[in-house]
Structure formats: structure tokens, C-alpha cells
Amino acid sequence: MKVLFMGTPDFAVPVLEALVEKHNMTAVISQPDKPKGRGKKMKPTPVKEAAEKYGIPVYQPEKIKDEKFVELLKGIDADIFVVVAYGQILSQEILDIPKYGCINVHGSLLPKYRGAAPIQWSVINGEKETGVTIMYMVKALDSGDMILKRKMEITDDDTYETLHNRMAYVGADALIEAIELIEKGDVNAEKQEDSLATTAPMIKKDMGKIHWSRNSEEIRNKIRGFNPVPGAYTEYEGEILKIFKADIVEGYEKGEAGEILSVDKKKGFIVKTGNGALLIREVQAKGGKKMNCADYLRGHSVEEGKILGASEDNM
């Protein structure tokens, strides 16, 4: 099948690579390059880098709904459009272009977690199961008929990063299977039950603030869901401290929420939560690198009895 692919981040690359092996890739659409790093050099998107490696033509419109670009899309010979974390909303005019429609790889078991950050919210909310849904695209957000689903376990140690990386390959396999069904005319698409829908809005940095009065599991899930980006954080001595790994520990009932109860230079430090305590194991100081707490404590003073976060954070 002749495929036009739309995608931007790392998550989309395994899907593109799977398509290259099985189908004729006519073009790739990705977001414009952006300046990154201290030198602010223009950096291509991960999908663009992958496409160029395979010699696939790449287009990067500022606005995909621009009239001239829509006409360009109409002139590309493609049977189907595949969209994976592209980053722009497609108009109905674009959705109507390909013979077999536009299909999307979404990182949840729809209709749960419609929106921009389904993987992160599934971890933040403490879900034990998630998956991938391949669906036909419609103008309403993540509401199209579902072609197939693939379930995945969320382990207790999963972070946004580990789940994201596994899901990219599950999504790639599921997409190839979905296209085979479309080619054979064997699709038995399932409508979504809108009453069961939940949302997964875009993650913003300020959402990562830790409120130590919450229960230990809730805080740990936030830490996992914000690892590696944008990072859950608190304040220590007026400076931002990001926390990337923590374990629930038992036997700590007394103390104020956010209070540092004990410090172990080999393991980390224990912080009081609303219903217990967490052992903080991996952190990043302002301007520093992510490191385990043993390394952090060699160069930083962390004192028992100090309170993490401003007082209003812990109410």
C-alpha cells in the first residue's frame, strides 16, 4: 500500500520504520525543525531524521491546514495517511483525501485517555493496564471508530519513559496488522462509547509540583509519570529539586508533610507524606545532572527536620 506518514517525536519512529519494511512510503510530514541546546542550533525532528535515512521526501509545514499545502497533499500519490503524534490538527478536507482514510496510533485503550498525553496520565493515575488503539481519524479529538486494540501491563516500576518505549513497538506491530486488515477488507471497526471517555490533557511543567500532604502512592505515581520529562519537583532551601525515583517505605507515622525524617548517605533520604513516607532515590538539583541520591548527598547537605516545599504546597 502507498502510505503517507505524519509524525514528529521518538514515539513515532518505530512505526515509520515498520511501515518502511512493509509498504511504499510516498512522503513524510513532520513538525518544523526547532532550535535546541545552548547554541540554539536548529535540530530536525526524530521522524525527519529517520525519513531522511530511508530517502523518503519530508515536508514540514508551519500550518498543515494552509490552503497551498492541502493542495500539495492532494497531489501526493498515497492510499492511506498514517498519523502518529504529529502535533497538528487535521482538517476534514485533509481527512477526506486518501482512499482508505486517515488512521492513527493512540497510546491508550480508547475511549480512556483521549488527548495529548495518554501514556503519562495512565502512569500518574496509577493504572495497572493500558495499551494501543488503532483508529480511523475524525475531526473530533481521538473519537474515531477503532480498528483494533493491543493491551499492555503497567508494572509498578514503569515510568513514562519505559512505558513510552515499549508502547512504540507495540503500536508499530498493531499498525501493520491494522493496515493488513484494511487491505483485505476485513476491518470490523468498533464505535467508541463516548460516555466512557476520559481525557489526557497536555502535561505542563507546573503540574509536576509535589504536594507532600498527598498519599505516598499518589506522589510516587506522579514522580513516575513525570520521569524523564518534565520532572516532578519540590523545593529545598529555596531551590528547585527534581525527583525522579522514590520508593514507599513503612513505619513512618509521625512528622509534618514534606519533612525530611532521616538521611542515609548510601540509600537516600526519607520524606514524610500524608499517610506514610517515601525514600527518595534519584534527584536533580538546579543546574545539575540527574543522579542517584548517594552521589547527590556527597556534594549536597540534606538535613533531617527540614521541610521540602513551601508550606502551602503541603496543605
Briefly, what is this?
This protein has helices at residues 13-22, 46-53, 67-75, 92-95, 118-124, 160-184, 216-225, 293-299, and strands at residues 2-7, 24-29, 34-36, 41-43, 58-59, 80-84, 102-106, 129-136, 146-153, 232-236, 239-249, 260-264, 268-272, 277-285, 291-292. The chain is α/β, with parallel strands linked by helices and 315 residues long.
Low-confidence stretches: none
Structural class: alpha/beta
Run of helices and strands: EHEEEHEHEHEHEEHHEEEEEEH
Gyration radius (Cα, Å) is 22 Å
Shape field? elongated
Q: How would a crystallographer describe the biggest sheet?
A: 7 strands, mixed
Strand portion: 25-35%
Molecular structure report:
- The chain is of the alpha/beta class and 315 residues long.
- The protein contains eight helices and 15 strands.
- The strands form three sheets. Strands 5-2-1-6-7-8-9 form a seven-stranded mixed sheet. Strands 10, 11, 12, 13, 14 and 15 form a six-stranded antiparallel sheet that branches. Strands 3-4 form a two-stranded antiparallel sheet.
- A hairpin with a 5-residue loop joins strand 14 and strand 15.
- Helix 1 runs parallel beside helix 6 and helix 5 runs antiparallel to helix 7.
- The longest helix is centred in the middle third of the chain and has 25 residues.
- The N and C termini lie far apart (57 Å).
